[in-house]
Amino acid sequence: MLRIAVIDDDKTLLCDMHKLFDRFIIAYDFDFTVEYFSSCEDIYAKFKAGEKYDLLFLDIEFPEMKGTEFGLQLRRQMKNYDTQIVFISTIRDYAMELFKIRPIAFLIKPITYEDLCKCLQDYMLDYSNSDSFLEYISENTKHKIKLKEVSYLESNGKKVIFHTKTEEFAVNGKISSIIEGNGSKFLCISRGVYVNIKHIIKATSKEVTLEDGTSLFISRGQQSIVRDRLSEL
Question: Full-prediction pTM beyond 0.70?
Answer without folding.
Answer: no
